[in-house]
Amino acid sequence: MWFNHPKFYLARNELMKQLDHFKSSSSKPELVRRKYFGSEPLPKIIFICGGDEKNFPNRLKVENYIKKHSKNNLTFRAEYAWETIVESKKKTVNALELEDWLADFSDVVLILVESFGTVAELGAFSMGPDLRKKLLPILNKKFEKDESFINTGPVRWVNNDSKYGPCIHADFDSILTCMPDVLERVDVRRSKIYASRSEEETYGELKFTRKEMLFLVVLVIISIGPVSEDVVVSVFKEAFNIKGKSGVDDIEFFISLSVALKMTKKAMIEDDLYYFCKDYNNLKNSIAVEPLLNLSQSIRSRCLSHLVYIKDYINTLEAVHKIDS
Q: How far is CA 243 from the centre of its chain?
């Protein structure tokens, strides 16, 4: 690796200088956060649950529709985040913690209730009060009048408590006919209020939420990538005063989640693991991400003025650009 190269130290110092510049611009954390993310809220993250694509093609249709017709939202598959949460937490994980983490990262959990698995997900997710507020289930209208457990339990709970309720009953043979209703609810009911800023639920002196930390990880990786996990962690510890083992563990989790959600990528090159952004397809669809992308590109241009003199860096950059090309 080239991370001990004098030119890399200059690039890292340039990154730190830019991040510190915003911190010194105001004594009010909310104004500093706007420097990173812009004046508008971050895009809504919509986690979409659905059946196995081999037998249930509707989820892909819904994803493509949202990407085409909405510029305020980012869509991801819930199981990618779920797998990352389980993997990162390992022995300490339990179902309630998983629901808390998914509730923190998501703004909307859209469930196409079309298989035994998604019926189970609706039942499980509706049990947690925080996650239930974010659920928007789409159910088959053939069963709308049935006095089933789903209709008398989870559906009623969601109808009573969800910000996006009531549940939608649709014709699953023409699923896109319900999508204008879905987007009307998600876009029009777009909250202008950030999540709780309590000490227990935020990070660092600027009190970043978990969702904001995820986007900051993307900013740092774009700015100086390809880069190792250790470098990203060190930047967060120094720039944002993230302390303790739990804080470091969570940063590592955010890095893994950014890959799982296809916001960034990772590659093993000559026995070293690097994180990078090759394209921004999953980000640039949302206009709310533009301030962060513009900032990261500005910082990257400054960092590259030093990195281009490191031969090993250029070789690695060329290697990652060949991946999937």
A: 22
Length of the chain: 325
Output Rg (C-alpha) for the chain, integer angstroms. Answer: 21
Amino acid 76 reads: F
Please list, in sequence order, all residues whose beta carbon lies within 8 angstroms of the beta carbon of residue 209, skipping any fewer than 6 positions away: 104, 194, 195, 196, 197, 201, 202, 203
Check residue 324 and give left, alpha or beta (phi > 0: left; psi -120 to 50: alpha).
left
Q: Which amino acid is at 302?
A: R
* Ranges of residues in the chain whose predicted pLDDT is under 50: 91, 190, 192-194
For strands 73-77 and 108-113, give the pairing.
unpaired
Q: Round to the nearest angstrom and report the end-to-end CA distance of the chain.
A: 24
For the domain bounded by 44-188, which CATH number is listed? 3.40.50
Q: Taking a C-beta distance cutoff of 8 angstroms, is the pair 109, 102 a contact?
A: yes
* Residue 45, SS3 per DSSP: strand
Residues 93-106, buried b or exposed e (16+ Cβ, 10 A)?
A: eeeeebbbbbbbbb
pTM metric for this prediction:
0.86
pLDDT of residue 158: 94
Q: What angle do CA 158, 163, 168 make, to 5 degrees?
A: 55
Domain map of the chain by residue range?
6-39+196-322, 44-188
Asked whether 112 and 56 are in contact (CB, 8 A), the reply is: yes
Query: Which amino acid, residue 319?
Result: A
